[in-house]
Write a structure and sequence with these properties.
single chain, 84% helix, rod-shaped, 76 residues, 1 helix
C-alpha cells in the first residue's frame, strides 16, 4: 500500500561544478551591469556639470555687465 519514493541525486561533484559555473557567470553579469551603471552616472554627472558651468558663466556675465553699466552711469 505504501509506495516507495525514489529520489535520485546527481553526482555531488557535478552539482558543485555547475553551481560554481553559474556563480561565475552571475559575477561576470554583475560586473557588466555595474560598469554600465557607472558609465551612465558619469555621463549624467558631466551633463549636470556642463549645465552648472553655463549657469555660472551667465551669472558672472550679468554681474560684470551690471557693474559696467553702473560705472558708466556713475561717471557720466
Amino acid at each position: 500500500m505504501q509506495e516507495e519514493i525514489k529520489i535520485e541525486f546527481q553526482n555531488e561533484d557535478e552539482t558543485v561544478l555547475e553551481y560554481e559555473e553559474i556563480t561565475q557567470r552571475l559575477d561576470r553579469l554583475d560586473e557588466k551591469a555595474e560598469f554600465v551603471r557607472a558609465e551612465v552616472a558619469q555621463r549624467t554627472g558631466r551633463k549636470i556639470g556642463r549645465d552648472v558651468g553655463i549657469l555660472y558663466g551667465v551669472l558672472a556675465a550679468l554681474i560684470l555687465a551690471s557693474l559696467f553699466f553702473i560705472l558708466i552711469n556713475y561717471f557720466s
